[in-house]
């Protein structure tokens, strides 16, 4: 069994990817410092797959600890790097925290991964690298715009670092996956999105409002140039997203990549407005949601959705779940949290 390291493997996307890796026959080693996750997620993974991944509570900001880990594991067949801070608003207030956590940890992981014989690298990137795109849908060749937040900048810088490393090391192979908006949870409702504190993303806030934990959802603006005036995003089911990581990893392990650094958008190719997402929740939960329209929020992109042609043609991957499917799974997860 090939050993795959998943950093941030107890996080939202990481945990779902660990499940798909184990279901695909990989042995998984999780590294997570529990700064934005909880150890209980490990029980959920084991409950779904019947397999116990190796777990290290390691802070990747500690360079010596990263080196010690790799010294003890020179038989790793691949790395999927999720570990990063990801709250846009917090990054604006705490830029140095974001640069240290998102850039230093990536550098330390790359320094060690490149020393291994054949260990490809998958990077958790984001559609934030496109900023306010000039044309929709957004393809991989769309221009990279100036970042709208330190968080977005760390993803841009991260991609540049990996690209430079691949140029300097022709035997090193990497793929950056630019996600649009991951939502939903595993169908078992044993793992899902578990925001610590006040949710930063729309869907967890909807779920908590629907469950009575939050009094009301604020919709930031309804005068944008969209069909109903609210912002549009491309919401992708987290399990579809997780499966794409396994496909990308196998592509690199099997040597099917055409260059040693590739980039793919991962989305559904469809945009949904904030009000459409609320309506979807109301459909799957059979209840109305308490929300109000408030002022626009600084830095919000009006609309972003993916051109998914490249992932479809090259990875042979497409998102399978609808918005309602994803919202239904998120609601099932939210209900069992109570």
Automatic annotation (TrEMBL):
<dbReference type="Pfam" id="PF16363">
    <property type="entry name" value="GDP_Man_Dehyd"/>
</dbReference>
<protein>
    <recommendedName>
        <fullName>UDP-glucose 4-epimerase</fullName>
        <ecNumber>5.1.3.2</ecNumber>
    </recommendedName>
</protein>
<dbReference type="InterPro" id="IPR016040">
    <property type="entry name" value="NAD(P)-bd_dom"/>
</dbReference>
<dbReference type="InterPro" id="IPR005886">
    <property type="entry name" value="UDP_G4E"/>
</dbReference>
<dbReference type="GO" id="GO:0006012">
    <property type="term" value="P:galactose metabolic process"/>
</dbReference>
<feature type="domain" description="NAD(P)-binding">
    <location>
        <begin position="6"/>
        <end position="328"/>
    </location>
</feature>
<comment type="pathway">
    <text>Carbohydrate metabolism; galactose metabolism.</text>
</comment>
<comment type="similarity">
    <text>Belongs to the NAD(P)-dependent epimerase/dehydratase family.</text>
</comment>
<dbReference type="GO" id="GO:0003978">
    <property type="term" value="F:UDP-glucose 4-epimerase activity"/>
</dbReference>
<dbReference type="InterPro" id="IPR036291">
    <property type="entry name" value="NAD(P)-bd_dom_sf"/>
</dbReference>
<keyword id="KW-0520">NAD</keyword>
<keyword id="KW-0413">Isomerase</keyword>
<keyword id="KW-0119">Carbohydrate metabolism</keyword>
<comment type="subunit">
    <text>Homodimer.</text>
</comment>
<dbReference type="GO" id="GO:0005829">
    <property type="term" value="C:cytosol"/>
</dbReference>
